[in-house]
Amino acid sequence: MSRYIINGGKTLNGKVKISGAKNSALKIMAASILGSGKVTLENVPDIEDVNTMVQVLQTLNAAVEFDREKNILEIDPCAIDVCEAPYELVRRMRASVLVAGPLLSRFGRVKVAVPGGCNIGARQIDLHLKGFEALGALNSIEHGYVISSVDKNTGGDGQRLSGATINLDFPSRGATENLMMAAVLAKGDTIINNAARETEITDLAGFLVSMGADIYGAGTDCIKIRGKKELAGTKYRIMPDSIEAGTFITAAALCGGSIEIADAIWKNLEIFCLKIKEAGIDISSASDNTIKVKKTAKKLKPVYISTLPYPGFPTDLQPVIAVLLSVIPGISIITENVFENRFMYVEELNRMGANIKIDGHHAVINGVEKLSGAPVKAFDLRAGAAMVLAGLVADGTTEVYDIYHIKRGYEKFEKKLASLGADINLVNDEYKHV
Ligand code: EPZ
Questions:
Q1: Can you name the CATH fold of 2-19+240-428?
Q2: How far apart are CA 254 and CA 5, in angstroms?
Q3: pLDDT confidence band for 429 (50 / 70 / 90)
Q4: CA of 177 to the centre of ligand 1 (A)
Q5: Ligand 1 center from residue 408 Cα (angstroms)
Q6: CA of residue 428 to ligand 1 center, whole Å
Q7: What whole-number distance in Å separates Cα of residue 243 and Cα of residue 21?
Q8: 127 CB less than 6 Å from ligand 1?
Q9: Boundaries of every domain in the chain
Q10: d(Cα 130, Cα 204) in Å, to the nearest integer?
Q11: Would strands 397-401 and 375-377 be described as parallel, antiparallel, or unpaired?
């Protein structure tokens, strides 16, 4: 079992480069199922979730090769003849359900393990299934699996889905992505209203268009898709990871110094960057997609934050910015509107000396002068990153346990932080109870 040991209080300086976006790469890997030729993806992050999606694709009998040094992934979907995402993989990574849309679209049937809840909320897939139904599929749940297949009576010709108008109750990212991928090979036109607008959705649409799909309006709340009979293989570069960028911006705000973050796109992270600015941090962007954070002599100020689907404040950066707010004097308030259980990290942060109280879906943060190092655990990916940041700014030594969560989504996290001057070491040893 591995853990990080961090000796806090070091000033961070220098330049760091952001990797490809996890939440774009995983969907685009799933979308490669739709093509009738080889797909080459550049800027794919070497992280555990990508490894899991590689296994999902291999389970379907796709041929996959990952050059981890060059971050290039090749997927040949031609031999796919299995239409099932097994429990073992879905349990490990919920995003495995994103193969449902492409498999249903290409083969007219799919069987996927129902993911169940996780450490941040219930996270149902009802909106995905309602959308499949609108496109002409029949869904049933049997023995923990959802089975979807084209209904020959209401569906399209043979095994094809039929285009439809889908009105999402909530702009779910996963549902928008699964339904976009289902619709691109359906017969006729599909409209997705109240669609999610995240930049990763625009990236997925860009990839599908490069395969020959007809998609309009990705990045707005109304996406229109004209179904095609076939899509081709393609070459595509994954966009940079905004959440990783936000994590390094926060590390810089806590411990800089002067830091340049390359491949960090301000407009994809605007609300977050503006909140960082509102707190009094010196943050600016250059035209070459570099964000600079510099030490400021100004007194930092508390801020109020409400998480919302894009372009709102990203829920994935909520635990991360909480660390910064926990050391800014005054009262800051975070309201979590996307997930019902995303404050699990607060007790760990309080063990490091933070003063945060939870009231329903609000966290009331009374900024303290300093945090003090302690053994803590990572509850999930972003909570884990938050614990590392807390360790960087705390007095003394912090040990972060259960860091397999962090490995799921941050490429070379400790190496990148160490290159900026952090004292962080990865230790592999037997599990120690905290
Ligand atoms: C994506 O999850 C991301 N994951 C999450 O990032 C991110 O936190 C989340 O979007 C919100 O931005 C990936 O892209 C792999 P949703 P997703 O469907 O698609 C409810 C990270 O740390 N809902 O937009 O699962 C759901 O329960 C991860 O990188 C339904 O009720 O998010 C949640 O409350 C964690 N029914 C809300 O909508 C459904 O059918 C948002 O979920 C679908 C969703």
A1: UDP-n-acetylglucosamine1-carboxyvinyl-transferase; Chain (3.65.10)
A2: 18
A3: confident
A4: 11
A5: 16
A6: 31
A7: 8
A8: yes
A9: 2-19+240-428, 22-237
A10: 21
A11: parallel
Structure tokens at 392: 């960087």
Tell me: the pLDDT tens digits for 354-399? 999 999 999 999 999 999 999 999 999 999 999 999 999 999 999 9
- Going by alpha carbons, the residue nearest to atom 13 of ligand 1 is 23
Residue whose pair of structure tokens reads 């909106």 in the numeric block? 127
CB of 119 within 6 A of ligand 1: the answer is: no
Give me the pLDDT at residue 433, please: 53
Q: Does the annotation mark 255 as catalytic?
A: no
| Closest ligand 1 atom, residue 94 Cα | 15
pLDDT at 117 over 80: no
**170 within ligand 1 shell (Cβ under 6 A):** yes
CA of 420 to the centre of ligand 1 (A): 32
The pLDDT tens digits of the residues spanning 92-103 come to 999 999 999 999
pLDDT of amino acid 296: 84
Going by DSSP bridges, is the β-strand pair 2-7/39-42 parallel, antiparallel, or unpaired?
unpaired
What predicted TM-score, i.e. pTM, was given to this entire model? 0.96
Helices (H) and strands (E) in the chain, counts: 14, 24
Residue carrying structure tokens 């095994």:
159
Residues 6+ apart with CB under 8 A from 370: 327, 353, 393, 394, 395
Q: Which of 21-25, 115-119, 165-169 has the lowest mean pLDDT?
A: 115-119
Three-state DSSP class for residue 359: strand
Assign 239 a pLDDT band (cuts: 50, 70, 90).
Answer: very high
Across the range 168-195, mean pLDDT stands at 98
| Fold match between domain 2-19+240-428 and domain 22-237 | yes
Backbone angles phi, psi at 359, to 5 degrees: -130, 100
**Rounded CA separation 19/159 (Å):** 38
pLDDT for position 120 = 72
Given CATH 2.60.260.20, say whether it is the number of domain 22-237.
no
| CA angle centred on 177, ends 95 and 339, rounded to 5° | 60
CB atoms within 10 A of CB 196: 23
| Residue where the block lists tokens 């699964």 | 178
Question: CB neighbours of 189 closer than 8 A, spacing ≥ 6?
Answer: 163, 224, 225, 226, 227
CA-based nearest residue to 21, from 41, 3, 35, 36: 41
Tokens 């300086």 identify what position?
13
Sequence-ordered list of residues with C-beta below 8 angstroms from that of 338, at least 6 positions apart, any chain: 307, 308, 309, 315
The finding on whether 23 has its CB within 6 A of some atom of ligand 1 is yes
Pocket test for ligand 1, best of 23, 53, 146 (most atoms within 8 A of CB): 23
